[in-house]
Design goal:
The complex is a heterodimer.
Chain A lengths: L7 H6 L1 H5 L5 H13 L1 H19 L10 H8 L15 H9 L3 E6 L11 H20 L1 H11 L3 E2 L2 H8 L4 H4 L5 E10 L4 E9 L4 E7 L13 E5 L2 E8 L2 E8 L2 E8 L2 H12 L5
Antiparallel strand pairs in A: 1-6, 2-3, 3-4, 4-5, 5-9, 6-7, 7-8, 8-9
Helix pairs in contact in A: 3-4, 7-8
Chain B lengths: L1 H12 L3 H23 L1 H17 L10 H19 L1 H4 L11 H7 L2 H11 L2 H11 L5 H8 L3 H21 L5
The chains are: A alpha+beta, B mainly alpha.
Chain lengths: ~280, ~180
């Protein structure tokens, strides 16, 4: 048996290219000769073959669902859409409200329209998008978030970057309520403004989304039925969305909105914490 | 085939929904198959839908300098990598969840498909992608390099790494090549 012209490291560097038939004929012959005589390289090559056989044997058997109608629905967001039907406030939420000592119901409205900061179709789109987001968030926060980010060109950012991009430091990036941790922060380019969004996770694995925007009126859910109440003494608008609550309140010249709260106690916790002087 | 796709893409770029639907029908199973391996069955439908939303929103940016399929896969790849970066923690299962009582037991309990999925899950997402484009999709190095925007020589070295790591992960899970 003659000496091998190639050393093992050289062969191994090119072993995938050899295996995949991507080498020129002369290089291929050299590697073939080495592998024929070198048990270690031959064993590595055998492993590549077995892996390939494994992949071929267990191709995914799931078929893609036909989501064309969903794709079209998303693509046609640009067309005028009617406001979604109002959903009555859940009894569970009201029971929670009664239990939350710090919450004083001030006004219960039959149908309160959240104020809009722009009218017409753009409002309808935004309201429809955020209604969809809030409902989806209750079922599948990850999916809801993906769609929102795609719709509003969302960018994940480091906490320090958010303040630089917005020219103000969002309240939610300074401190989070006890029992919650800040998971992700995004910048969203919405029709109304550029908005900071934070995803928070509780100790028991629940998620909420907190939005902070620098316009002066909350309007995101169109003509949905709402409750106006005082949470920790602060006027707060509450909407029931798929069994979860959305709370929105003014803080200085900005608006904070929490999506995914379990009950008014949750929202009050956020209002209390984020309204403390240390938090702006 | 390519001429037909070029024609459909051109019509779809003018906003023709039927042409867009034809592109969806043509490619959505392939994209879905890749997504299943990249992010798992549960997330694959959502992510496939997300890929096509991006494809049709960005269709005006497709200039025809590459094949449409290559461009579409680039969108799919970006979406899957972004998804994995966003949800990295949830995607990572550790061996701590595995039976601790030896390789043969592990192998008994895990079907080959699950073994492969779990091993792939542990692989770095970019290595996973290159491995899948080669092994599942049968792409050549040039096509992979163009899509991933890396030198052609790098494809081979990354495949070496992907295969070695994957084999090691599989063996840790009880696979015997």
């Amino acid at each position: 048996m003659g000496a091998l012209r190639l050393e093992c490291p050289e062969v191994r560097d090119r072993l995938s290219a050899y295996f995949d038939g991507e080498l020129a004929p002369d290089q291929r012959s050299e590697i073939a000769l080495h592998v024929e005589r070198c048990p270690l390289c031959a064993e590595e090559l055998r492993g590549f073959t077995k892996l390939s056989e494994l992949v071929a044997a267990v191709q995914p058997d799931s078929q893609a669902a036909d989501c064309w109608s969903d794709v079209v629905a998303q693509l046609e967001r640009g067309r005028p859409t009617p406001p979604p039907p109002a959903v009555p406030l859940g009894r569970g939420a009201l029971r929670s409200a009664a239990l939350a000592a710090s919450v004083v119901l001030a006004v219960i409205a039959g149908t309160f329209a959240f104020q809009t900061w722009f009218g017409g179709h753009r409002h309808n789109h935004l309201a429809a998008d955020l209604t969809r987001y809030a409902r989806e968030f209750a079922e599948n926060p990850g999916r809801a978030q993906r769609l929102l980010l795609a719709t509003y060109d969302g960018q994940p950012l480091e906490i320090q970057q958010v303040g630089q991009r917005l020219n103000y430091e969002p309240t939610i990036t300074r401190s989070v309520p006890p029992g919650w941790k800040l998971k992700e922060v995004y910048l969203l380019h919405m029709p109304c403004c550029t908005c900071a969004q934070a995803i928070l996770e509780s100790e028991d694995g629940r998620c909420v989304a907190v939005f902070e925007h620098d316009t002066d009126q909350a309007m995101w859910f169109g003509d949905r039925q709402s409750i106006d109440c005082l949470c920790d003494g602060k006027p707060t608008s509450i909407v029931d969305m798929g069994g979860q609550l959305v709370g929105s309140w003014q803080q200085g010249n900005r608006t904070l909105t929490v999506i995914g709260a379990r009950d008014l106690k949750d929202i009050t916790q956020f209002v209390m914490h984020l309204s403390r002087p240390a938090n702006g | 085939m390519q001429d037909r796709i070029v024609e459909i893409v051109s019509t779809a770029q003018r906003g023709d929904r039927e042409a867009q639907r034809q592109l969806y029908v043509e490619y959505h199973q392939q994209v879905h198959r890749l997504m299943v391996r990249m992010v798992g069955v549960q997330e694959a439908d959502d992510l496939t839908q997300q890929v096509f939303l991006q494809v049709f929103r960005k269709l005006g940016q497709f200039t025809g300098q590459s094949r449409f399929g290559t461009w579409l896969y680039r969108v799919a790849i970006n979406e899957s990598l972004q998804h994995l970066r966003r949800s990295g923690r949830r995607q990572t299962r550790t061996l701590a969840e595995d039976p601790a009582d030896g390789r043969s037991h592990a192998r008994d309990k895990l079907e080959q498909r699950e073994l492969l999925d779990r091993a792939l899950e542990r692989l770095d997402p970019e290595l996973r992608l290159i491995f899948l484009l080669r092994e599942s999709e049968g792409w050549g190095y040039r096509e992979i390099a163009r899509t991933m925007k890396i030198p052609e020589g790098t494809v081979g070295s990354r495949l070496n790494r992907a295969r070695r790591e994957l084999r090691r992960y599989l063996e840790e899970l009880g696979w015997e090549p």
